[in-house]
Design brief:
The chain has a 7-stranded mixed beta sheet. It folds into 2 domains: 35-191, no CATH class; 200-364, Peptidyl-tRNA hydrolase (Rossmann fold), CATH 3.40.50. It has helices at residues 14-32, 35-72, 78-86, 102-124, 130-162, 166-195, 203-211, 251-261, 299-311, 324-328, 333-353, and strands at 218-221, 224-231, 234-241, 268-276, 286-290, 315-322, 359-364. With 372 residues, it is of the alpha/beta class.
Length: 372
């Protein structure tokens, strides 16, 4: 009988041939199908769902702490109070295609919104003092931020899944770690506003308070006061938000009104504020520059700038550096030491850049929580 064997004229092992076929099939699937996109979507979907649950957890923890605070203030059912604020609090920006008077229109809308929030807090706590109502306003704002961010992230996540857009999901994956870090700071911010203790952003008002600890405070505009001191023959006007409640006041309007009262006889305007540090920089570091150190949307800042131009007064900026988390949580030792340094920097600027008989305005910008 003949020996029946299958010949292999090419000399290629069958295992190698099978491996080659599988590799080519995989290449075909990767290059000519949407399999890679589906793999990416599945991968990013798991990551985003986890991050989204973290954001939701932060929002729920913040809400729980806020409800406990409202109960302490005598509110029996705090849930509807928070819902009423979170679901009915937004601002539609003015038309920007026509830039004429846009700052005034924006300022008007911001004030209308602020008045609405104040009325809401007053309706909840009609018998509470101003400081408690102002602190409650900020706590409600914190709840709104966390709720809003959660809803926006959820929107883009569901939209990315619905449209199978892996690139949209990938962008969410990239930004979510940094975003969650910021939201964790917002969650921590509830505590100092419950207790009424200074936060990092209180650095500017604290500088002014330390320069005139016992001076009489005179109200010049809504939630904003000023005091006067003599510094080596110079008349110094110190502006800050009216404490100890959590408010930033209206420093730009105050500077403009005070300059008008002084008939523009001003030798210098100095603004002092907290500023975000760059990674690698030390918290509490003090820097000196030029311009208006204020981080508002525009109306208050432009009011200071216009006053400086109108009066021909140089505009100095002194900043205390800190992280975004340090800015909205309780004031640290490093920030407090920076405030002490900033006081000396402001005094040095007045001594070196003005002369006896001059009048100087110093505005402490920031949230005056816990600072009288």
């Amino acid at each position: 009988m003949y020996n029946m064997q299958v010949s292999n004229p090419t000399g290629i092992d069958s295992t190698v041939l099978l491996f080659w076929i599988i590799i080519n099939i995989l290449w075909f699937l990767l290059l000519f199908t949407d399999l890679p996109d589906k793999i990416r979507i599945y991968r990013w979907d798991r990551v985003i769902r986890f991050r989204l649950s973290q954001i939701e957890g932060l929002a729920l923890e913040t809400r729980k702490a806020s409800e406990d605070h409202l109960k302490e203030l005598g509110i029996k059912e705090p849930g509807p109070v928070i819902d009423g604020f979170v679901n009915n609090n937004f601002l539609i920006e003015p038309v920007s295609i026509e830039p004429i008077d846009i700052v005034r229109r924006l300022g008007h809308l911001i004030r209308v919104r602020d008045d609405k929030i104040k009325s809401y807090a007053a309706s909840i706590l009609p018998n509470a003092d101003q400081a408690k109502r102002e602190n409650l306003e900020v706590i409600l704002e914190i709840n709104w931020v966390l709720s809003y961010v959660h809803r926006v992230v959820r929107h883009f996540y569901l939209l990315g899944k619905k449209t199978q857009n892996w690139m949209l999901l990938y962008q969410l994956v990239l930004i979510l770690p940094a975003l969650i870090k910021e939201l964790e700071a917002y969650k921590k911010a509830v505590e100092p506003f419950r207790l009424g203790i200074p936060i990092g952003d209180s650095a500017g008002p604290l500088v002014v308070s330390m320069m005139a600890p016992n001076a009489e405070r005179i109200r010049i505009t809504d939630e904003t006061v000023y005091s006067t001191i003599d510094l080596e023959g110079r008349r110094v006007y110190l502006i800050k938000a009216e404490g100890p409640g959590g408010t930033v006041g209206r420093p730009g309007e105050a500077v403009a009104k005070l300059a008008e009262q002084l008939e523009c006889r001003i030798s210098r305007i100095i603004t002092v504020d907290a500023a975000l540090k760059l990674e690698g920089e030390k918290s509490g570091e003090v820097a000196e520059g030029t311009g208006a150190a204020i981080g508002d949307p525009g109306p208050e800042k432009i009011s200071i700038e216009r006053t400086a131009i109108k009066c021909g007064a140089p505009l100095d900026a002194v900043i205390i550096k800190m992280s975004s988390e340090e800015a909205i949580t309780h004031m640290t030792k490093e920030i407090y030491e920076g405030v002490s340094k900033a006081v000396e920097v402001v005094k040095r600027i007045i001594r070196e850049r003005t002369k006896e008989g001059d009048q100087v305005i110093v505005a402490g910008i920031g949230n005056t929580l816990g600072v009288l």
